[in-house]
Task: inverse folding
């Protein structure tokens, strides 16, 4: 960690050299460690000390971006000059609204000293304990445990000076038997807030209960989606639909539907980076304060998140969702998606499922199939159960779903009052905050012809591991 | 830098490590994206640093820094050592590496025209002209064209005496259009989706794409898709074109043959593989005409290099021979499990990541058919072109792909267009249903610059040589 004063002194010095009409500097520095384990032993263990400095130079409405990971003064100055040169050599962007002006940010405590100082040895000790817990049941354990401290700063020639130090700790674990697996995960700014013992007990329990999974016919089922499963659906819905770019280019499933009912009125989804009980963060990578932005409010489509450029195009103000300047072409992105909790106690939700499937998490979802209809496909993974008459009957073999999410969300039966924080692989800055959801209808597809095709030559040895 | 890294290696030897290597990587990138005539993104990045990998007390440690002073490098070496000692707290089996000759060498990829020396105006003009042509119809909502270039200098030093320097240049470009009518949105791309095509070559690769020659066709196909019939939900014969075959090979041959994944070390993110080691030399993976090789030596392939990031020389090795599964992608740590030496596939996404087993150029070797003959030989079927979506389970068995566009094949002739096609299958069943592969005239190496793996996430640049191929009894359908 460099620290606010020292960092601004260094970057201000470079900024003062700029010959551009407007200049912005974004600094992202990180010291992080990640311990990965598989087959009940640590097999990868890494440490990194790095920083990225992005310069955005503006000449009229011409924009140039250059970045470096060297903090040597001469390298920073050269990169600044490069960004100016890039700006000079390109056409004007008529939509560019100018860099943001200074603003006030919500005061958030996002740094935890204990997480920042958590050592490789500390992580190994945690991993050793959870491996031992899985060992007691004869299960293998795999997963990853990371701790990181970062400092993020945005400054520009109009006077923006934003700085925030953050820490993050996250762990995922998969307990595995010969025929089953069980997953659990946790994330927090404070490593001591993660209940490692509770998580391993959950992963082991899921693994134990899903042993010898039974096949089930694909088709339309009620599903009880646990928070990790809900989060992975939302990650893709966010990616293809909650940003202004897809919203305005009409590829988003929300486009053209503002004010219209698109899901059950039990569904409310929004972005809120200012929630102190989540992975909060006060500003975006242009130094604009984060705002709470609704996407779906009680089933009604509302809107998208904006940065300054897409805000100008839409004639509204930025909602504080700009990414780093090198990712400008992607447009704005929500980093703290929340599904509002419902009224049902989570442990009571299963009682209302007559015949359905409990899904712990999904694997390899893809949402590019038909974005205006929010069609997603993916596989279940690490704890899939058949529910009959309100009780778990048995573990079942994994299934592929392909379904239009707005259609599925129209069938919402209940939402849990409890929510969980779930790490997003789109970003390390925020996370998702989601409940469990009971849907009345969710479609699983058959991957192969219904009638067995004429036998092909060869021996198939995958019968035992095949998912369907 | 060589001397500084050698000092680190010498220091680590004095600390009694079993093995160590250090990699210096300097990577310069340039990306340009033009959308509807506006430059939406134009950026240059320089990323420099050193990563040090250590085996101590039988376990791995890795530390990386962007600060390149001698004191910081020594601190980083010590950090890697401490990380290894922490890893050893859960040790079950000490790490043992396969034997490897410590090469001292220099390698560079072919490059006729350094893309970083090509004037910005020239690149921008080409992309802007593409967009202009693509937007000649009101039905086109968005026209997007992009280029990306990488220039990487790598130095590898090990305690075994390896000293390898490599200079690798990569170039890529492509464009896509979105056509919109009411609620209907359709996309077409050239030469491939997801950013186009990439190679370890210079700007001449971009020039050879002849981007402007394809704008009219791509625009008109996107518009035609708006009124095309939905792809029927049926079981039929499919002919898959080269670029989609590349992703098919990637997901259902490349990833499952990574031996680290097979041995369970990728479970926490991407899952395992159905190709357990008992299947080596026994599984009939595909029909007799299916031959797949891993070949890091193809000139210009995006997965080509001189040496991997463990200092193992680039190789060509068989994965599937006449339908039989015969080989994995391996590393120095995993190869001994199957009684072999590494076939050189360990690569890291930069100085700050550890090397993992990554695909090189994983190629479906060409067959004997001409595409026109193959279509003429197909009574009923569907021709599938260019990837739109992809998903496969955590054992790499149950897959579903969506493509941009399909055409009906009826009585040996290509007919009407279908929109929103998807096809699904189970990996070995699918490959065993392959009964025709097009010849070398149709064969091309497709660069895939976005292969994700590992935690922290690493993005590898890989490639797949493919030609169109035919598969029987495949489930196809609409996307919902």
Result:
């Amino acid at each position: 960690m460099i620290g606010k004063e020292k960092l601004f002194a260094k970057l201000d010095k470079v900024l003062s050299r700029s010959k551009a009409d407007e200049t912005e500097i974004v600094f992202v520095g990180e010291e992080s460690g990640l311990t990965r384990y598989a087959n009940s032993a640590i097999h990868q263990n890494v440490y990194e000390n790095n920083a990225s400095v992005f310069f955005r130079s503006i000449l009229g409405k011409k924009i140039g971006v250059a970045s470096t990971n060297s903090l040597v003064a001469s390298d920073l100055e050269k990169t600044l000059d490069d960004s100016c040169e890039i700006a000079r050599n390109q056409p004007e962007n008529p939509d560019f609204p100018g860099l943001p002006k200074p603003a006030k940010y919500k005061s958030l405590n996002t740094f935890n000293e204990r997480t920042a100082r958590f050592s490789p040895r500390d992580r190994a000790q945690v991993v050793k304990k959870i491996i031992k817990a899985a060992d007691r049941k004869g299960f293998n354990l795999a997963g990853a445990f990371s701790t990181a401290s970062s400092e993020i700063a945005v400054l520009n020639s109009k006077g923006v000076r934003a700085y925030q130090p953050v820490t993050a700790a996250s762990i995922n674990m998969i307990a595995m038997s010969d025929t089953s697996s069980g997953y659990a995960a946790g994330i927090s700014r404070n490593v001591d807030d993660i209940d490692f013992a509770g998580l391993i007990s959950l992963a082991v329990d899921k693994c134990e209960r899903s042993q010898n999974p039974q096949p089930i016919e694909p088709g339309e089922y009620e599903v009880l989606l646990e928070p990790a499963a809900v989060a992975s659906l939302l990650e893709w819905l966010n990616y293809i639909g909650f940003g202004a770019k897809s919203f305005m280019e009409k590829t988003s499933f929300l486009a053209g539907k503002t004010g219209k009912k698109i899901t059950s009125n039990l569904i409310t989804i929004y972005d809120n980076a200012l929630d102190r009980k989540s992975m909060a963060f006060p500003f975006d990578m242009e130094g604009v304060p984060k705002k709470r932005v609704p996407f779906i409010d009680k089933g009604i489509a509302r809107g998208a998140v904006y940065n300054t450029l897409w805000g100008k195009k839409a004639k509204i103000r930025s909602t504080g969702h700009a990414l780093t300047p090198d990712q400008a072409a992607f447009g704005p992105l929500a980093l703290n998606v929340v599904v509002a909790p419902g009224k049902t106690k989570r442990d009571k939700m299963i009682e209302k499922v007559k015949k359905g499937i409990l899904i712990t998490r999904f694997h390899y979802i893809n949402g590019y199939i038909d974005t205006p209809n929010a069609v997603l496909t993916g596989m279940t993974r690490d704890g899939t159960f058949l529910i009959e008459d309100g009780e778990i009957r048995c573990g079942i073999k994994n299934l592929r779903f392909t379904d239009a999410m707005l259609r599925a969300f129209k069938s919402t039966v209940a939402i849990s009052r409890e929510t969980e924080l779930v790490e997003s692989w789109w970003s390390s800055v925020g996370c998702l905050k989601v409940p469990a959801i009971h849907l009345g209808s969710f479609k699983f597809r058959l991957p192969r012809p219904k009638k067995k095709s004429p036998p092909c030559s060869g021996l198939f040895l995958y019968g035992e591991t095949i998912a369907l | 830098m060589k001397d500084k890294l050698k000092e680190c290696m010498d220091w680590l030897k004095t600390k009694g490590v079993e093995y160590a290597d250090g990699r210096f990587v300097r990577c310069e990138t340039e990306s340009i994206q033009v959308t509807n005539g506006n430059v939406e993104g134009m950026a240059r990045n320089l990323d420099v640093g050193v990563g040090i990998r250590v085996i101590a007390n039988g376990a791995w440690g890795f530390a990386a820094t962007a600060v390149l002073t001698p004191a910081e490098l020594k601190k980083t070496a010590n950090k890697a050592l401490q990380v290894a000692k922490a890893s050893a707290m859960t040790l079950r089996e000490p790490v043992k590496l396969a034997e490897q000759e410590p090469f001292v060498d220099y390698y560079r990829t072919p490059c006729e025209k350094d893309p970083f020396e090509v004037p910005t105006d020239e690149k921008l003009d080409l992309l802007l002209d593409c967009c202009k042509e693509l937007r000649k119809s009101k039905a086109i909502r968005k026209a997007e064209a992009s280029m990306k270039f990488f220039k990487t200098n790598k130095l590898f030093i090990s305690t075994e005496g390896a000293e390898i320097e490599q200079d690798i240049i990569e170039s890529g470009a492509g464009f896509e259009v979105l056509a919109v009518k009411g609620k209907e949105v359709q996309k077409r791309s050239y030469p491939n989706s997801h950013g186009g095509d990439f190679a370890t070559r210079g700007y001449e690769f971009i020039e050879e794409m002849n981007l402007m020659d394809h704008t009219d066709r791509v625009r008109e196909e996107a518009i035609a898709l708006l009124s095309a019939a939905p792809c029927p939900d049926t079981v039929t014969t499919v002919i898959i074109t080269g670029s989609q075959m590349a992703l098919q090979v990637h997901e259902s041959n490349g990833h499952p043959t990574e031996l680290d994944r097979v041995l369970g070390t990728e479970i926490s993110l991407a899952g395992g593989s159905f190709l357990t080691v008992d299947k080596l030399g026994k599984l009939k993976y595909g029909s007799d005409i299916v031959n797949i090789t891993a070949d890091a030596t193809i000139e210009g392939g995006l997965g080509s290099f001189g040496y991997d990031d463990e200092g193992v020389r680039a190789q060509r090795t068989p994965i599937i021979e006449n339908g039989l599964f015969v080989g994995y992608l391996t590393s120095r740590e995993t190869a001994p499990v199957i009684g072999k030496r590494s076939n050189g596939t360990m690569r890291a996404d930069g100085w700050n990541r550890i090397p993992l087993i990554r695909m090189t150029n994983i190629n479906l070797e060409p067959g004997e058919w001409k595409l026109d003959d193959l279509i003429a030989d197909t009574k009923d079927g569907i021709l599938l072109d260019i990837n739109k979506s992809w998903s496969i389970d955590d054992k790499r068995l149950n897959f579903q792909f969506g493509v941009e566009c399909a055409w009906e094949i009826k009585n040996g002739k290509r007919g009407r267009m279908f929109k929103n096609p998807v096809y699904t299958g189970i990996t070995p069943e699918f490959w065993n249903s392959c009964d025709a592969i097009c010849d070398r005239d149709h064969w091309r190496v497709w660069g895939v610059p976005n292969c994700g793996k590992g935690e922290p996430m690493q993005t590898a640049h890989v490639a797949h040589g493919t030609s169109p191929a035919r598969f029987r009894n495949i489930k196809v359908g609409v996307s919902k």
About this structure: Residues 10 and 72 of chain A are 10 Å apart (CA to CA).
